[in-house]
Specification:
This protein is α+β, with helices and mostly antiparallel strands and 146 residues long. 76% of the residues lie in helices and 15% in strands. The chain contains one helix and three strands. Strands 1-2-3 form a three-stranded antiparallel β-sheet. A hairpin with a 2-residue loop joins strand 2 and strand 3. It is rod-shaped and about 150 Å long.
């Protein structure tokens, strides 16, 4: 019986026959438990299997590259969307702050106007009272002088 390499994969079983892929010194070779029964058809099947494995590995590598590109695109889109959201939030906060400042200014102007109206009424009342008492004051001064 032949000495088999340490690394082997059983690909198919056909009743009592096995197709095995051996890895030996980084070279992929094929053999079977009963190699005399495999003949040329078995060798061709093994070659097709090896070719299929290599094609599958290439497809998997392509899928991994596409997934990596998709991941990068998703991350870039997420970063852009986050930056846009931050920009909108900042603009909204500035707008709200400006509106609150304008409301405070308007409230201040209204309070100032109310105070001015009150002072003007007070001044008008004092003038009216002063004019009403003017003749009394003039008469009192004249009496004091005489």
């Amino acid at each position: 019986m032949e000495k088999w390499p340490e690394k082997a994969i059983i690909l198919w079983t056909f009743g009592k026959y096995y197709i095995i892929i051996f890895y030996d010194s980084n070279i992929l070779t094929s053999d079977s438990m009963t190699s005399k029964d495999l003949g040329r058809g078995g060798e061709q099947m093994v070659e097709e299997t090896i070719r299929t494995i290599k094609e599958t590995e290439n497809e998997a590598e392509g899928i991994i590259k596409k997934a990596d590109a998709a991941c990068t695109e998703i991350l870039d889109n997420a970063k852009a969307e986050a930056a846009e959201m931050v920009g909108r939030a900042e603009a909204e906060a500035k707008s709200e702050a400006a509106a609150a400042l304008e409301a405070a200014k308007e409230a201040g102007r209204k309070s100032e106007q109310e105070a001015m109206d009150s002072v003007e009424k007070e001044i008008a009342t004092l003038k009216k009272d002063a004019l009403a008492k003017e003749s009394e004051v003039v008469s009192a001064v004249i009496e004091e002088l005489v």
